[in-house]
Amino acid sequence: MDVDRFEWLMAGLTENTLDGDEQLELAGMLDSSPGLVLQLQDDLATDSLLVQLAQNDSAQFRERLLNAMNASGRTGQDAGDLLLSDLANAGSAAGGSGSGRFLPWVLTAILLVSTTVLAAILVQQRDDQVTLPVADRQVPREPTVELTSDSVVDPDPAGNPDPALAGRQPVLCRVLNAAGVFDDMGHELKNSTITPGTYLTRDIATGLQFGSGIQIALRGPARFELIDNQNLRLHSGAARIVVPRRQSGFTVHVPGGRFENDGTEFGISVDAASGCSEVLAFEGNVAIFSSRGEKVDTAHEGVAVRMNPKGLLHQIAADPSRYLVPSEIRFINWSLASLNLAADPDLLVYFPWRDSQKIPGQPAPPLTNAAVRHGISAPEVHGTRIVSGRWHGKEGILFDNSSDYVQIDLTRPMTQLTIATWVNIDRLDYSMNSIFNSNGWSEGNVHLQITRTGHVWTGVFGDNEERTLTQEISVGQWHHIVTTVDCESHQRRVYIDGKLASEGPVPESVQSLQLGKCRIGNWLPSDDVVVTRDRALRGRMDEFGLWQRILDEKEISELWVSGNPYPAD
Amino acid sequence: MTDPRNHSSPDSDGDDDRIPELDSDKSEFLELVETHTLRLRAAVRSLGIDQSTADDILQDALLVAWNRFDIELHGAAFPAWVVGIARRLVLNHRRRGARRWNLLQNQVAGFLAARRPETPSLLQKMATSEQLEAVRECMETMDEESRLVLEQRYFRGLSPTEIAEINGTNSNMVRQQLHRVRQRMARCVRTKLGTDLFE
User: Fold this and answer.
1) In this structure, are residues B94 and B114 in contact, taking their beta carbons and an 8 Å threshold?
2) In chain B, is it the N or the C terminus that has fewer CB atoms within a 10 Å radius of its CB?
């Protein structure tokens, strides 16, 4: 039997994607190899339990049943669908002669649900308010102030409170997530600063950044209490804490004791069900204290220690994979934002470079346009290489030859245009270095280029205005470059790293844009051009989008925030 | 109010003449349903039927069960009894060519429902704390990638296609990855419980 085929069919059945022939094929396989039935039923039962766990709809099911019972009454008559003999057969299973080969797994797998009940409670609070039991605390907590993204600012790293916050709780920490973090009143926090209090996350990845520079990458669902600048209590979840070298004494409180950093990077995880916690010292050491405040042990670099709720310790095998690194959080956040982006109806071209499926040693598969709804023809790729992008595991494209380019055909006229891309420039070899240039230079064409001195410039044909220069962009660093060209308001703008960098007029004579064939990373000059024919880009690009509308400043800022590979300021 | 049933239970020898109180029956019945909802839904789903159809079939099976319910006869093996009724419902629908629930096309459900169930496991005798510990340990052994894909599929409600977009793969690969992760979880739990059981 073809095992891969069987697995494919099984996966398809579970996802409900098989057609009739495939169903028949799978049934045939099951018939010829009865041992496979258990495997299939394992898959289905596990799927069901996970669905139930995530959707938490058992109560709804029972309510529907109760309504149906009340509506139909208890007549003593069997349902028309069922014969007495059927019932007898069904009943015999209950009598002990057999009860379903799947039941053993069902009975065992059901326990999966029980073990993660707490996690489920956290995860399933989707729509209704989140209520949390008040945690035991060692430090009295101030009332939580109302949280909005702009109501509070980061503290002075030196510890001087902002005068504007006099009388209010100083801000300690910023949540880097796009979504999925709640305070104990059930408020969802997005890219927000938080004050002392208890929070929970349903997301798999949450980033916390302290004013002091400490970063925490939290794998959820997790529940934690922010006590102050130096203390955090972890009730559940796994946290990687990265502390700037000059600081020590950051403490994570867990059931049974606390862990205090004497190094720069360590991981702590807490299992809510058992109350056991684990510490892994990635770099430097971690001091372990009992709940009475006595230092009981030290986890040295590379060592993992488990503590039970009574404070008993034993060394365990280190498992670094359970702890996220801060950059992974940014990558995950970007991935989610990128999916939303691709759904924009005015997006004509989108290369996220997140799905090339490149196999090491093999040529990269063809580049495809992720904005599919406008039927823009497939891009033509010449040269270039798939290389690492803004994050570990993320890809981008490298332009490092004079003949490298990606060409797209945009024959449709448009009155508004936005181009956004992330670039990391190696060198600026020419007086003009193309990010995105219409081939040639004629009516309706647009060129987005970087000058040899690092200024970004958007040119619209017919525009004889003096160039409005942006600030210089640095080589060897990722920068977010956006340009907007609006033939309705006759304005063009350049944004660098989320901020407006220059603006200028679009000539009144330009009523619409005719981009035609365009090259990303290069320029195809017309024959009559004598100078500045070479404009090949030297560097990496990771994400390119082109819209037939103007993105406003807020949207552009959000693009920059979600795609920024560097820690927030 | 009395039970109006006037025929014997299929599980008795034909001379069941008890007339239980309906109200107490009802609360006992609902209590059993509440206790076993998760496993019943998973069990009917295990017949190869999608979850929402499985829920409909289970509801019908429970209505049939309610009509015939006697706590003393059915209480002890309630889940097996109800799942047996659900299996029969599936088979009868297919036999009659009924279009409801679209079961005619479902060859796998037909095959699984017709299969003779085997002896139930003794796992029910396990102490809860042991079981919980075994499952917890299994979850801990899952690698990061596996946990991520489970989170995406079940807790974020993303489709395999959406997961493929995020993770930089294709939807077929995501389906198979999910399948393998579920298999690993199932194997791990069964191995641990099996070992514990015979210790």
Assistant:
1) no
2) C
